[in-house]
Amino acid sequence: MHTTSLHARRRSLFWRIHFWAALIASPFALVATLTGLLYVFTPQIEATLYGHLERVTPPAGAAPLPLDAAVAAARRAVPAGLEIATVVPPASPRDALKVGFAPPSRAAGEHANHAPQPASAVPATAAAPVPRAAAAARRTVFVDPYDARVLGTQVDEDRFSEWARRLHSRLLQGESLRWMIELAASWMLVMLLTGVWLWWPRPEQASQPALPRAGVRGRQGWRQWHAFLGVLLGVLSLVIILTGLTWSKYAGSQVRSARDWAGQASPQVPAHLHSMPTGGPRLGWQEAWQRTRALVPGVPVVLTPPRGPHGVWRAGSADRRHPADRFDLVLNAYDGQVLYRAGWERQTAFGKATAVGIPFHRGELGLWNQVLLFVFGAGVLFSLLSGWVMFFKRRRTGRLGLPKLLPGAWRSAPTWALLLGAGLCVLMPLLALSTLLLAAVELALGRARNRAAAM
Questions:
Q1: Strands (DSSP E) along 149-251, which ranges?
Q2: What angle do CA 229, 234, 237 make, to 5 degrees?
Q3: How far apart are CA 102 and CA 107, in angstroms?
């Protein structure tokens, strides 16, 4: 009898927390899911929008021109004042050459060897050769590798993928709404964990089977499918939420601090690497590409040119679909000697997890990844909507509709739940702050109930 009473108190507590988590997270989770579903199909949408820029038809029997000729053509197609940031050579005979341009970096001197984001990963949008008056705008130029003809110029921030990413992560706003998305993700994690606890089969819940039963209608029918799909998608939900939090503002900072403390930071290219002039010319684009291909065969690459006479050539993977092909390569600008090389085998466990998890979150690992995320998104939509359907079916007219708390419910919290909650609050500062506010609300509601009972 005592065990049943304890379980009942705990169940009322977890159910109350689950409700608050859903109330806070659901609006933003609904928007994030809908915008995420749109983002998932970015490759297909961009193939339609930008196929005329990114794909070419190889002439019969023709070989590509040296990379230097195509890069020079791209250089002539952009306003003065921009410098070449990255070049992505064609990965297949039907790919165009991509040349990324950016304003001169503050460290564009002799030792400015930090590679910008690969042009293949930097968003851009179809436009005329000079689509904006603002010469400082980052852009990508697409060139036919067979005749060095400029196919078009795209301003990075206007590409569909960039628009969809900003819509998904911050609703096309700046930092003003970014914290809201992070707050929602934090409470989605709480919603997931409490939902799993509520669903978990126990002997005292024999009347509530874990698997859905056919023929159940009404609120019970909604409830069983809500719980079952929520738990079924639980692992995916956990992956999506945690990978999303890694690049959030506040929780992401905590994650990175914990990563560094645990020695799990990815290996970084040493900042002191430089080339020593040998009296001869520096390697050209074609020579740097050939040297890279010899060292890393079969992997699409992004090249970053040297800055200044002591700068170095840098190369990395341009294909997110194969995380295990990820590498960092630094070459002497004059003789192509390898100054630094790190591949998948040198990645930390955390680095490997994020190298796989983040592209998975974005649907970049292939069609199977996109299909899985679409099914996941549809399941999340059903779980969110069915939760609110159950709420309105249970809620009585004129009542707030909060799940009832049994006496002593807050004191019944298990130790593991308290420790886990404290850990999550440390990891997610916005969760901690909102929990304090929620505790104040609960305290006020408790006092109101006590006054009503006294009357």
A1: 150-155
A2: 110
A3: 13
Average pLDDT for consecutive 10-residue bins of the chain (455 residues)? 72 93 89 89 93 93 92 93 94 95 67 37 34 66 96 92 87 72 90 89 60 66 77 86 86 90 90 85 94 94 93 93 92 94 93 91 91 91 86 69 85 94 94 94 83 70
Specify whether the CB–CB gap between 343 and 207 falls below 8 A. Answer: no
- Sequence-distant (≥ 6) Cβ neighbours of residue 225 within 8 angstroms: 212, 382, 386
Integer Cα distance of 86 and 285 in angstroms: 11
By DSSP bridging, strand 97-102 and strand 139-143 are antiparallel
CA-based R_g, the chain, Å? 27
Q: What is the pLDDT of residue 118?
A: 37
Cβ proximity of 334 and 283 under 8 Å: yes
What are the backbone angles phi and psi of residue 271, rounded to the nearest 5°? -75, -20
Report yes or no: 287 and 304 within 8 Å, Cβ to Cβ: no
pTM confidence score: 0.80
Q: What is the pLDDT of residue 97?
A: 97
Where b means 16+ CB within 10 Å and e means fewer, 310-338 reads bbbbbbbbbbbeebebbbbbbbbbbebee
Whole-angstrom CA distances from 268 to 118, 274, 319 are 16, 15, 19
CB contact at 8 A, 143 and 97: yes
Residue 69 CA: distances (Å) to CA of 79, 132, 285, 307, 431: 18, 25, 9, 20, 54
The residues with which 140 forms a beta bridge, in sequence order, are: 100, 154
Half-sphere exposure of 199 (CA within 13 A, CB side): 21
Cα separation, 325 vs 347, whole angstroms:
11
Query: For residue 184, what are the contacts with CB-CB under 8 A and spacing of at least 6?
Result: 24, 25, 27, 28, 29, 32
Say if CB 153 and CB 139 are below 8 A apart. yes
Please report, in angstroms and rounded to a whole number, the separation of the first and last CA atoms in the chain: 32
- Tell me, rounded to whole angstroms, the distance of Cα 267 from its chain centroid: 21
Can you tell me the distance from the alpha carbon of 450 to that of 455, in angstroms, rounded to the nearest whole number?
9
Write the single-letter amino acid at 370: Q
The token duo for 59 is 């002439």
Give dist(CA 292, CA 162) in Å, integer.
29
Domain limits of the chain?
A: 2-41+168-260+365-454, 63-159, 263-351
Give the C-alpha separation, 367 to 377, whole Å: 15
What is the spatial distance between Cα 107 and Cα 115, in angstroms, rounded to a whole number? 11
Q: Map tokens 């909060």 to a residue.
A: 402
